[in-house]
Amino acid sequence: MPVANLHVLAGHPRESLKNWVRESSRALSEILAAPADRLEVWVTEIDPELWGIGGDPASEVLAHTPRRDAEMPLIQMVLMEGRTVEQLQRVIAELSAITARLLDVDQERIRVHIAHAHPDRWGIGGVPASIRRAAELAARQAAG
Prior knowledge:
The protein has one domain (3-143): Macrophage Migration Inhibitory Factor, CATH 3.30.429.10. 42% of the residues lie in helices and 25% in strands. It contains six helices and eight strands, in the order E-H-E-E-E-H-H-E-H-E-E-E-H-H. It is elongated.
C-alpha cells in the first residue's frame, strides 16, 4: 500500500531519477516490510520557472546559486496507520540519504512528509482496506 511521490526540479539525469525510484522503493519495502508489488513510487518533475525558492522562480535562483544549494526535494508518502515511530524515522533518514546521494542535493534541504491512511479510509479496488486486507493487516500489527 505505501505510495511515495518524489518531487524535484526538472533537469536531473533520467538515470538518476530511475535509480531514485528503484532505491526508494527498496528502502520502503525493507523498512516497512511491505511487499514490493504493493509499492507505488513516482517522480514528479517541476518546471524551474514554476517552482519558487525564496519567493523567486527557481530558474532565476539557479542562475546564481548551485542547484545542490538551492533545490529542496519534497518526498510525500501515504502509509497505512500502524507503523512504529522507529520505522517512520528510518524511512525519513533513508529516503533523505538516497535523495542527497543520487541527486547531489544538500541533505539539509530535503523535506519528507508522511501522511497516514486509516484502513477504513483507503480503498483498494473499490473496497476499504479494512475489509479487503483485514487478515493481512492483523498479521502485520501482531508482528509489530
